[in-house]
Write a structure and sequence with these properties.
The protein has 13 helices and no strands. Helix 5 runs antiparallel to helix 12 and helix 6 runs antiparallel to helix 7. With 368 residues, the protein is an all-alpha fold. Helix content is 60%, strand content 0%.
Length: 368
């Protein structure tokens, strides 16, 4: 259960980031003209800087917040040396951290992975695996483009700033993007509240109302969302990604060791015979195929949070390392879990998420 999924708490950190020292950076950032000081972090789209100017700007931001109570550019890729370590109080060249990688893994290693077996059953195993690799490649490419944009504009704090820059620096564009950003994260958090409430219902088998469990889960989500910086949140993100990975791994194992999937030969809704596994499924409708494709795509797409992660990195140029690591892990985990569960559960016994297809009730309870 990814209660600490970083996508759902990005806004609070980035907004506080802007309030804390956005205007101060704007006044001193060499990448910004004097006409942009009045706008603070809301910059004009014509502000292009060279690679050397970009590095200088990041270094200046580190220097400006060196004495602040809360330091935001604290995320990094594992590294034994750093060109700006002398600018940041409390940061030493032998420090090793995995903040950005942890944030990315917590965002992408989520319960939505368990929709892949269902998608593969609707598309067929071969198209499903191909689509997984193709979507991952497109997301990687667009994420790298976004990273390069953020390097050119180190004053960018989040996707709201980018939205404003795309619309000629208009302030309404920043607020419109912020509304969409807040709504996106609110609905993602609502999904996790619902999952948490159902989880507590399943584990306790208690008569307590689901609404009560929802309130409990909301409080838990609030607590884990309190950290002001992503470097602090990364610790929770690591635990979130780890336990979610264990959950989907157990689902794949239990699907394989169980004698039969749930509903085996029950005759309900075509649940008869041995599990059917197809390389290509030609019986699915267009709507079913599109739904399967969107399930795969939605699990991969998370670029909306990347500018926020990059904005808090000590060295933004290291971001592709974390991005490549999580993309490779995504392709391997998503493909293996989807293919293995689909192979043992079969088309006619498949549920989405696939947790509901585990035949042995005790194993299904342990996995949960």
């Amino acid at each position: 259960m990814a209660l600490a999924r970083s996508a759902s708490v990005v806004v609070s950190s980035t907004i506080s980031h802007q309030k804390h020292h956005g205007s101060e950076d704007s006044a001193h950032d060499p990448a910004m003209g004097t006409g942009d000081v009045e706008k603070g972090v809301k910059n004009k789209p014509s502000l292009l800087v060279s690679d050397s100017e970009s590095a200088l700007s990041v270094g200046k931001q580190l220097e400006l917040e060196a004495n602040n109570a809360i330091k935001y550019r604290t995320c990094s890729w594992p590294k034994v040396n750093h060109p700006h370590h002398h600018l940041t109080s409390g940061y030493y060249p032998w420090t090793v951290s995995t903040h950005t990688a942890a944030l990315l893994f917590s965002e992408y290693i989520c319960l939505a992975i368990m929709s892949f077996p269902s998608s593969y059953s609707l598309l067929g195993l071969v198209p499903g695996l191909i689509l997984t690799a193709v979507v991952a490649a497109f997301v990687l490419y667009t994420s790298l483009i976004l990273w390069k944009f953020c390097l050119r504009h180190p004053q960018v704090r989040d996707v709201c700033d980018i939205g404003q820059m795309l619309f000629w620096g208009k302030s309404w564009a920043w607020y419109a993007t912020a509304v969409m950003f807040l709504l996106n994260n609110t609905f993602i958090q609502a999904l996790h509240v619902l999952v948490g409430a159902k989880y507590l219902n399943t584990m306790t088998n208690h008569s307590t109302c689901t609404i009560t469990f929802g309130i409990i889960t909301t409080f838990i989500c609030f607590v884990v969302s309190l950290p002001r910086t992503f470097s602090a949140l990364a610790k929770i993100a690591t635990a979130s990604a780890f336990f979610t990975f264990v959950s989907v791994l157990l689902a794949a194992i239990f699907a394989g060791i169980g004698p039969h999937p749930l509903g085996y030969n029950s005759g309900i809704k075509g649940m008869t015979g041995e599990p059917i596994v197809r390389a290509f499924n030609t019986s699915s409708t267009f709507i079913q195929g599109m739904s399967a494709f969107l399930n795969i795509s939605y699990t991969f797409i998370g670029q909306i949070t990347l500018p926020s992660f990059i904005a808090e990195m000590r060295e933004p140029r290291d971001f592709p390392k974390a991005l490549w690591a999580v993309t490779i892990a995504e392709i391997i985990v998503f493909s293996l879990v989807g293919a293995i569960v689909y192979n043992y559960v079969g088309e006619q016994y498949m549920t989405s998420p696939a947790f509901g297809s585990i035949g042995n009730e005790n194993l299904r309870w342990i996995k949960t």
